[in-house]
Amino acid sequence: MRKGRLANKVVIITGAASGIGKGTAILFAEEGANLILVDRDMEKLEGTAEEIRLKGGDCRTVCGDVSLTRTAAEVVETAVREFGGLDVVFNNAGIMPTADILGCTEETWDQVIDVNLKSMFLMCKQAIPEMLKRGGGSIINTSSVMAHLTEPGYTAYTASKAGILGLTKEIAVTYAEKGIRCNSISPGWVDTDMNMKLAEEMGGMDKLYPVIKAQQPLGRMATSREIAYGVLFLASDESVVVTGSCLNIDGGCTAAI
């Protein structure tokens, strides 16, 4: 892998304190990006930033709730102030409470839609004008295999992740001729904190792995860095004609019966 695929690119990454966001932030720093890292967990976020700085990378952190307009505005303003503009946004922050439609409260529904979907609308709304000033840019939104196929007990999560696919396509076709690309990724099982917590709730990884093996032909979780390489492709100029697409990075999950 040659280095410098994101040299001098200014990149925003939400949900950068852990999991896919952290793995992507570290890889992007290695590829030369100037980073604005966003999360509501300041301690873990600074941990990600410290790892990047120790490797010689350049980044800034913003602690905030991505479902709020003021956070999106602050993040984009920070990118412009600190690095002079904006080239890439990776909308990755998300939550995954469990509840079917009868058990899902209106409060939970609103929270999931706000964090998982509305946050992307808000960030894109703030980011696109700055990208237009640069003549274009790349937006990548984290959806999920559960936008394509699901299981009982994830009403709000499934709806939010499916909504991301629609939002991505609409932005892509609206701004294609203006140089802004918008794509999504649909990860399967990944070694995130969210899935580690699920394993604990099930009684350990030995209880979770049979589920993974049944659903994901690869037979194991992907690492956060493995997902990050897919995001890197969509962020880089190598994917210049790719827009409105969803990259399934799922170990064959959506290909299986």
TrEMBL record:
A GO molecular function held by the record: oxidoreductase activity
Superkingdom classification of source: Bacteria
InterPro entries referenced in this protein's UniProt entry, alphabetically: NAD(P)-bd_dom_sf, Sc_DH/Rdtase_CS, SDR_DHRS6-like, SDR_fam
Keyword S-adenosyl-L-methionine belongs to the record: no
Short name of one Pfam family: adh_short_C2
EC nos: 1.1.1.-
Top EC group: oxidoreductase
Keywords carried by this UniProt record: Oxidoreductase
Family: Belongs to the short-chain dehydrogenases/reductases (SDR) family.
Protein name: SDR family NAD(P)-dependent oxidoreductase
Lineage per the UniProt record: Bacteria, Bacillati, Bacillota, Bacilli, Bacillales
